[in-house]
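Ticket #4471: structure output looks truncated?

Reporter: J.K.
Steps to reproduce: submitted the chain below (323 residues) through the standard prediction queue, then opened the result file.
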Amino acid sequence: MKAIQIKKGGGPEVLELVDVAEKSPAEDEVVISVKAAGINRSDIMTRQHPDTYGGGGKNIIPGLEVAGIIKEVGNKVTGREIGDKVCALITSGGYAEEVVVNEKLTLPVPKDFSFIEAASLPEVVFTVWFNVFQQAKLKEGDKLLIHGGTSGIGIMGLQIAKALGMFTYSTAGTDDKVQFLTDLGVDHAINYKKQDFKEVFKEENIDVILDMVGGDYTQKNLDILAKNGRLCYINGMNGLKPEINLWTIMSKNIILTGSLLKPQSIAVKAKIAKEVHQTIWPLLENKTIKPVIHKTFPLEKAADAHRLMESSDHTGKIILVIE
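Returned output as attached by the reporter:
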């Protein structure tokens, strides 16, 4: 089968289209014939530093989320059948014509969704649910701030929170992106290049912040959190070693947490999948929330997809289409 492989770390040019052997499923796994695969910021890190972020293996196939049709099932699979249309969260291997995954990490393609739309869901929805709802325990009436609101995670997280009765806040880097967020229904979005979010949101008493920026955002985030606020990190694009005032955390009973979704156990991810299917899938199927696809690329153009991701010129998800 065809797949995109990383044989050494580097720029987008190291993504190479190759032929690789097909894999058979274990007893609790399914084989998915992939029709579309999502691009994520984590894929960039895997490409740049495969020894650190790629699991230390050789000839890594990146890709954390796919959608397609089940073509084979293990002999103990009970919840999926050959021919089922599914999307799935995987730890690697998405940039390929086929993937093998535990059946518990698959979800049915939502009603009336294309494979492209379905492939945009697993990584962002699982990440938001795990961090914002399971760990930070965001609840109805709370205030949520997501930095980088026009990213895949931002767009989906803000929509989910709004649909479940939370107040939403966000930052973005252009006026057009701010307008997009406003049109999406975000309660208060600002252009961080023109306004300091700490000054704008200082009286809001934000309950939960989901941040992928880090660096000098960290203390500002702590400063604007309400008493008993929760600060969740999923990346630190502007620095992983910020200086913070611990008194802010102690005086306001703040919980500071972070996570990496990829290394979580199958049991943890299966629990997320079950809750997401119960809570989020109905919102997708009744069109209360929707995926936003910025652009698609054929599998062999994965390098161009990575270049677009790194430019941050996109709004929404970037998807590889596999013919």
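Triage note (M.O.): checked the attachment and the full token line is present. The longest helix spans residues 122-135.
Status: closed, working as intended.
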